[in-house]
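Researcher: I'd like a structural prediction for the single chain below. Treat it as a standalone chain; there are no partners to consider.
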Amino acid sequence: MLNKTILLVEDNPDDVTLTLRAFKQHNVQNEVVVARDGMEALDFLFGMGAYANRDGESMPQLILLDLKLPKIDGMEVLRRVRADKRTCLLPVVILTTSREEQDLTDSYTLGANSYICKPVDFEQFIEAVRQLNLYWLVLNETPTHNGILV
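Model: Treating it as a single chain, here is the predicted structure.
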């Protein structure tokens, strides 16, 4: 079975640590690439900057995207992901602390597949990550393009 990469776009080091710990606790074996801001996420996805040598055909199976990011915010990342034919079908789950109705509405309008408010409680967060893994990386079917998982 293909190893399904997760792109975690998160600028808060504590949230990165918590997410990685939650993945480990539920034996998520997927490679997790962490982008610390929106620009780094776009560079990874489109093979630019520090990722210029990355295989552009190899896309993550899932993008976990925070909204409040430095350089380029999560909404703009989502907008650019949906606007490009190479990435427009990638599952994007908004994983954020924002409970603002406008963020929720804008995320879905721009094409987010799911919107999850980060639980404050560690055990609830662990359970949310378990469910994310089960649904998006095990149960969910994604289209293929020329035999390449997109």
